[in-house]
# Entry
Amino acid sequence: MPHASLESDDLPAAGSRRFLFLLAAASPASAHRRLQAVLERAALWPQARVAIVAAVAEAARQLRPGEIPVAVGGDGTANLVARALREAGAVPVMGLLPLGTGNALAHALGAGRVDTALEALRAGRPQAIDVMVTAHPLAPLALATLSAGFEGNYLMRYAGLRGRGRVQAGLRALRSAFARSGGIALTVDGTVLSGEGERVFSAGLYNIPCYAGGHTVWPAADPGDGEAEAVVCTTALAYWRTLALGLRTDRPGARGSRRFCRWRTAHLECASPIQFDGESANGGNFDVRLEPSALGILAPARHLPD
# Structure
């Protein structure tokens, strides 16, 4: 199904747009410096504002009528800004400036490099994407990914070790996250992909084709077609094979070491940590539903369909 585009009468025309660049307080100093360099280099941002925020409510309070919020960072910052838009009841259109580590969402929308992201801000149109809305109190929204098992364990451990430096934290977290997790139950649209008490390596819900760096893993995924991807890998070998070779999720398979299908409603129950758009939280027992075309993200014109 082709991508939809979200048109809004409230979206200013190219050349007259005003932007609020939102940077998470936890972002590294390098992101602050890179943002400043971008704004100094681009003379067309005379009305741009910059705000450094630590929470969704703080970001929502910063929004002014007529401004387009821009998430400066990676997928976690995009999640924060999207939640702020919903909390403020504002026009659901935002931009991305990919200064994060992976920038999977930006890559999926053709804005994975700073130059293409700036093109999208200048003259792009909103591309409508679906969002995953959950009943988890700490992870109410996911734009790109929501998973348990290896990815949740890794990111929770990485966050706890990050003060030792990114490389060392990444290596230590990787070594400690390889065990299969018990008690991950994932049901999508009534189909059980992993049952209660079963030990699996990874169970995830995905809404875009890319992983970090723009590597395509789910080639059939379309962030705006009203369906998302559900994948369970019971072993580490199945998981790493999937990441390396990709997986056609439009060809359902409910058996074996890789189980997958497309979905609209899901239920996840896990005692282990989860990750959502690269952020970590404790597990739980909660429903997830896909909300079609709930958010518009400015994408380069050449990436959008005619």
Summary: The CA atoms of residues 69 and 298 lie 10 Å apart.
